[in-house]
TrEMBL record:
Record protein name field: Gluconate 5-dehydrogenase
Similarity-based family: Belongs to the short-chain dehydrogenases/reductases (SDR) family.
Chain ranges of the Ketoreductase domain: 13-205
EC numbers, comma separated: 1.1.1.69
UniProt organism field: Tritonibacter multivorans
Pfam family, one: adh_short_C2
Record-linked InterPro entries: KR_dom, NAD(P)-bd_dom_sf, SDR_fam
Superkingdom of origin organism: Bacteria
Alphabetic keyword roster: Oxidoreductase
One of the record's GO molecular function terms: gluconate 5-dehydrogenase activity
Enzyme class, broadest EC rank: oxidoreductase
Length: 256
């Protein structure tokens, strides 16, 4: 991954990423490692091979803690372990999510609760867990991943889009509450990023062509586009940006 910018203040920063071992999350982990950050991440699946590869490729070994983020006690323990290893967390990236497709009339209460626990509840409690350490540091940056799905009014995953919208409300409230502590809280809303999962499940030639037609910029989004935007929001380069939702989608939601 070749970057267009280097964010010097991220070198040595203690960074915590949820879902940092696969998909966009793996690219985020790599991106912060290449900036010289001390990265800890959680994921449900064993990521030892990924950790070994990152150390070999970047010279910087991340700390992997296996954890189901719906287990809030385990998530808080993982954050505490990361802070013990790397120092108080200065950057939190709430990236983990599950956009499993579903129909409104088929949703049962257990599924609804499961979806909210992954896509919204864990975000809140991760923020809660890192804020005391950020206060000690004199500030910090939280980046909450949302999606343009709710902005577009997409169908096919209403529990997911509900959580996406909630993330934005939570982001604005936390930004207001903790701004006096110089803690910045922003949301990042990716468009259709062509990860392996997307290519395997939904990115048919017809679907890709239709989506590209809606974009102002006629290039497909790659993980690096999201990584560099996250690095910007995490760095003091964006020190006066808080309570915002940065849309990185090639111009879909502004063009209609």
């Amino acid at each position: 991954m070749d970057f267009n910018a280097t964010f010097h203040d991220l070198s040595g920063a203690s960074v915590f990423i949820t879902g940092g071992g696969s998909g966009i999350g793996a690219s985020l982990t790599e991106g912060f490692l290449r900036q010289g950050a001390k990265v800890a991440f959680v994921g449900r699946s064993d990521a030892t091979a990924f950790v070994d590869r990152m150390e070999a490729e970047t010279g910087n070994r991340p700390l992997f803690i296996q954890c189901d983020i719906t287990d809030i006690a385990a998530l808080k323990a993982a954050i505490a372990q990361a802070a013990e290893a790397h120092g108080p967390i200065g950057v939190l990236v709430n990236n983990a999510a599950n956009d499993q497709r579903h129909e409104t009339l088929d949703v049962e209460e257990d599924f609804w609760d499961w979806s909210q626990s992954i896509n919204l509840k864990a975000y809140f409690f991760a923020c809660q867990a890192v804020i005391p350490g950020m206060k000690e540091l004199g500030g910090g940056s939280i980046v909450n991943f949302t999606s343009i799905s709710y902005m577009m009014g997409n169908t096919g995953y209403p529990a997911y889009t509900t959580a996406n919208s909630g993330i934005n409300g939570m982001t604005r409230s936390l930004a207001r509450e903790f701004g006096p502590d110089r803690i910045r809280v922003n949301a990042l809303a990716p468009g259709w990023v062509l990860t392996e999962k997307q290519l395997d499940k939904w990115a048919t030639p017809e679907a890709l062509a239709g989506h590209l037609e809606r974009q102002c910029l006629k290039d497909h989004l790659a993980p690096q586009d999201i990584v560099e935007s996250t690095l910007f929001l995490s760095s003091k380069t964006s020190r006066m940006i808080s309570g915002q939702a940065l849309v990185v989608d090639g111009g879909v939601v502004v063009s209609g």
